[in-house]
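WARN no homologs supplied; continuing
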Amino acid sequence: MKAKLLTTISIFTYQLSISQTEKVLNGKVISQNIPLNKVEVINKTAQTSTSTNEFGEFSILAKEQDSLLFFSKDYLFTRLKLTLKDLEKNYFIVEMNQKAEELENVTVARSVFNKTEIKKIANNKEEINEIKNRKQFDEVTSKVMVYDGQIKNGLNFNQPIFDEPKKKIEPRDDRFKKLVIASCPPDFFSENLKISPQEKEIFLNFCKADPKSKTLLEKSNNLELLDFLYAKNEEFKKLK
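OK structure emitted
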């Protein structure tokens, strides 16, 4: 009897120690068996983040009951709360679903699907794959050109022979963050939004994942930007 009791206590202690200790969680993010690159993987509980590589793989420290958030602009936001079984897996697979609206303007054989037709095929993998194949075929055939007597890539004497210095292109990933920092007072996050310095980076990534952030970059309006940040802050708090 004592031996069984000691065994039970040992197992319980072992499970408790695992659940309270962080371990490296190795995983892969996919959609329809296709690995997704550059997906933001955020451990909201531990306030850490990483992103997937070209093979959809990621590694992040986590423990039981941690909340993991997955962001990608073309896919639906995914949130998972880790269990002990998840941590015991050698490889953690996360499935993300593509946003239906991304298919709204797909052109096939030079005709456009309307919203009603898109909704009918949004969850049909065979239809979607056929659309992609037909679209690629149209793109290839549209590029077939008839020889017009001109020399391809010939030298244009009206242009300078030497290339002009290329302008440095600012990484797009930082533009929204820089816009917010430039438009908001230093204490805006702590005083107005009640967001700690540790959560600030995660919150900005959360906002950047919203397609509306691109609109705000195109037309910089401080009032609209502040309204957007307040609205996203309410959504962000609900994730806690």
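Residues 102-111 have pLDDT under 50 and may be disordered.
OK
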